Amino acid sequence: MPEESTTPDLEEAIRRLTEAANRRPPDYDGALAVYAEDAVVDNTSVGVGLFEGREAIRRFFEDWIAAYDDFEQTVEEVRDLGNGVTFAVFVLRGRLAASSASVEFRYAGVSTWTDGLVERVTTYTDIDEARAAAERLAEERG
After folding, report:
1. Distance between CA 42 and CA 89 in Å, rounded?
2. Shortest CA distance to 106 belongs to which of 82, 123, 118?
3. Residue 75 CA, distance from chain mean position
4. Residues 15-44: tens digit of each pLDDT
5. pLDDT in tens, 67-105
6. Which CATH entry fits the domain spanning 10-140: 3.10.450.50, 3.30.1330.10, 2.40.50.100, 3.30.930.10?
7. Which phi and psi (to 5°) does residue 31 adopt?
8. Are 133 and 49 in contact (CB under 8 A)?
């Protein structure tokens, strides 16, 4: 009988995080379950800021999602590049709160993981730049 892998499925973890954020009301605990206590979310490239620690990340998620009356994020692509690095492309679609204005935003996240938990996520609007950064990071950590 083959042994079951004890390696966490990082691609599946990203999908679970996204599903938790899409629930109504959002399941913030479920979304944050994949983050280490001292995780960092670096959204500086999209002008949103740097969030350090699970509580700061939670507040960011709450503020971000609350800005929309309708909010849905889909995973367009996700890849586990090995050595604790993932690359994912997301598409956010939503209607801004108290507005008829709709938003569609495509972006990428490069994440580093240890023991099945996110240590750091860096967000990129340039998908090709993100892919190259993720591949470099996976090689460096190898």
Report:
1. 16
2. 123
3. 9
4. 999 999 999 999 999 999 999 999 999 999
5. 999 999 999 999 999 999 999 999 999 999 999 999 999
6. 3.10.450.50
7. -65, -40
8. no
